[in-house]
Amino acid sequence: MAKNALDFGLKIPSFTQTYLSPGSGVVTTYLRESGILKYLEQLGFHITGYGCKKCIQNEENNNLKSDIKQIVNENNLITIGMISGTRQTQQRHSLIKANYVTSSPLVLAYALAGNVLIDLEKETFTVDNKEFSIRDIWPNRQDIEELEDELIIKKILN
């Protein structure tokens, strides 16, 4: 999906903060060996640690960009955190007003949209004057199965 987003010319809006905190080094191996990590990094999802490193979202560990902090405070915005992990998602940063847990592809889709109020199944959205639908970038089952077969079954599990 990250590759498809880049092929479509999409990028994460500057007001959306991203990071990648895999559950373990094994997940990093999957991402690196599959070639997916480079696409995630091009979109701004860089590995910042493992497990709960960043997702705890407390003031000390989660360094929100200073310009984002200023905009949120000046405009009394309701900001959210969206993760695909299974850790606690209670509020641990004073500027994060809500937290949502969803699948990794949906975290990416909402990050690209820069908005959680969008109905990804029905609506199109615009990033850098480019309109697209989630269907434009969602990977097809065949691509996923080929990747699973080549990487996970043949390289990692053997």
UniProtKB/TrEMBL annotation:
One of its GO terms (molecular function) is metal ion binding. It comes from the Eukaryota. Residues 2-114 form the Aconitase/3-isopropylmalate dehydratase large subunit alpha/beta/alpha domain. InterPro entries: Acnase/IPM_dHydase_lsu_aba_1/3, Acoase/IPM_deHydtase_lsu_aba, Aconitase/IRP2, Aconitase_4Fe-4S_dom. Transmembrane segments: none annotated. Keywords: Iron, Iron-sulfur, Metal-binding. This is Aconitase/3-isopropylmalate dehydratase large subunit alpha/beta/alpha domain-containing protein. The lineage of its organism: Eukaryota, Metazoa, Spiralia, Gnathifera, Rotifera.
